[in-house]
Amino acid sequence: MQQCGLDHVELLGQHNPAPDPGKPPLDFDASLKQYRHFEDLYKQGKAKALAVGHIEGPEAMELVQKLYDAATVKPVANQVAVSPVHYSETEHAQLAKLGISYMGFSALGNLYNHYDLSHPTLTSIASTYGKTTRQVVLRWFVDKKMGFVTGTSSAAHASENLDIFDFTLSADEIKAISALEA
Ligand SMILES: NC(=O)c1ccc[n+]([C@@H]2O[C@H](COP(=O)([O-])OP(=O)(O)OC[C@H]3O[C@@H](n4cnc5c(N)ncnc54)[C@H](OP(=O)(O)O)[C@@H]3O)[C@@H](O)[C@H]2O)c1
Known about the structure:
Largest sheet: 5 strands, parallel
Strand content: 5-15%
Low-confidence stretches: none
Bound molecules: NADP nicotinamide-adenine-dinucleotide phosphate
Radius of gyration: 18 Å
Mean pLDDT: 91
Helix content: 40-55%
Order of helices and strands: EHEHEHEHHEHH
Number of strands: 5
């Protein structure tokens, strides 16, 4: 934070508390110990909210519940690789019950979950609203009540990515986007 000239961050996320497939099982106690440190930072005002990340799959959802129960500062988000081609209705619903946002990183499929941003489904919906296909995908996150993280080095792209609050996707359009495949 000092290097960035900040006295606090809005969201402090624990990276990878759940194991990747094929990796050894998570040491829950070690993970909780780290989360406790995050809670201290929250209580000092250095983080306005806490998140966990990479918790995916049925076993991982048990982990979210365990961590949620143990937490004195509840996580507000679980940051995972959500996108139109990688999305779990079940996990979304489980997280929503706990008040935890299902938050997609690589929302535009750059580092993870690559998909075709020029797919006819997206171009057709984009032309309906006079938007770009990226804006349509980001609006899909909003309309499905999910958070997202995207990255850009361009001010013009940042403006484009924020200009998604003047239209709403129909239920059929949301369904069509959710059915896209990698
Ligand atoms: N928790 C984790 O493990 C994890 C994993 C992966 C990523 N992340 C986070 O997510 C962030 C983004 O990851 P990502 O790069 O995979 O995100 P992404 O949203 O899938 O893609 C970002 C890429 O899309 C381009 N882009 C963005 N808006 C655009 C627009 N309007 N028009 C054209 N191109 C556009 C950007 O290039 P330009 O710079 O040219 O705009 C950039 O190359 C990372 O910085 C990181 O903080 C977290």
